[in-house]
Design goal:
alpha+beta; Pnp Oxidase, Chain A; globular
Length: 195
């Protein structure tokens, strides 16, 4: 029922682009640390090549993915079909946290609609692509994206977001370094479309 694929083919690229939610899994090196799984939604995922993907990382209550990637780079993205034919696709690889100031940040940021809570862009070099049946995944109907996070971030403004990061996103729940206290939200790239 499962297959390992050589690359993100054109038809897989279309299917991935149709999914309204995906999940990101990371873990610290320590066996005592907490594994993290985060849902991602909105217009936040792009495919750069047959084995490279990126997504827009926005402010959250913790910064587990950032901390884990900075420590060890291991990551998996999982996509499930909640409508249409059942299917699950996992993209395993090595992730990189790209923040404002990185040479590639502005070009990658320009791939996404502007978001007032943007923390980084996560780039993943995919080393394993697998597809499985998804027969056990229930069907759900998509209604709409929530605007709560973008509204919250816009109301906080850059100063408020920076303060939030310094209180909530500097370390992981296990104490690993995530964001630096002095980091500030990036200004939207000039060629970003408004969200």
């Amino acid at each position: 029922m499962g297959n390992v694929l050589q690359e993100i083919s054109d038809d897989l690229q279309v299917w991935l682009g149709q999914q309204r939610i995906f999940f990101v899994g990371t873990a610290p090196l320590s066996g005592e640390g907490h594994v993290n799984v985060s849902p991602k939604g909105g217009d936040a995922f792009r495919i750069l090549g047959p084995r490279q993907v990126v997504w827009l990382d926005v402010t959250g209550s913790t910064a587990e993915t950032t901390a884990h990637l900075r420590e060890n780079g291991r990551i998996v993205l999982m996509f499930c079909a909640f409508a249409g034919p059942p299917r699950i696709v996992r993209l395993h690889g090595r992730g990189e946290v790209i923040r404002d100031g990185h040479a590639d940040f502005r070009d990658l940021l320009a791939l996404f609609p502007a978001h007032p809570g943007t923390r980084s862009v996560i780039r993943v070099q995919v080393d394993r692509i697998s597809s499985s049946c998804g027969f056990g995944v229930p069907e759900y109907a998509y209604e709409r994206d929530r605007d709560t996070l973008s509204t919250w971030a816009a109301e906080k403004g850059p100063e408020g977001i920076a303060d939030y990061w310094s209180r909530k996103n500097v370390r992981s729940i296990d104490g690993l370094p995530a964001l630096r206290e002095a980091e500030r939200p990036p200004d939207p790239a000039p060629n970003n479309s408004a969200s």
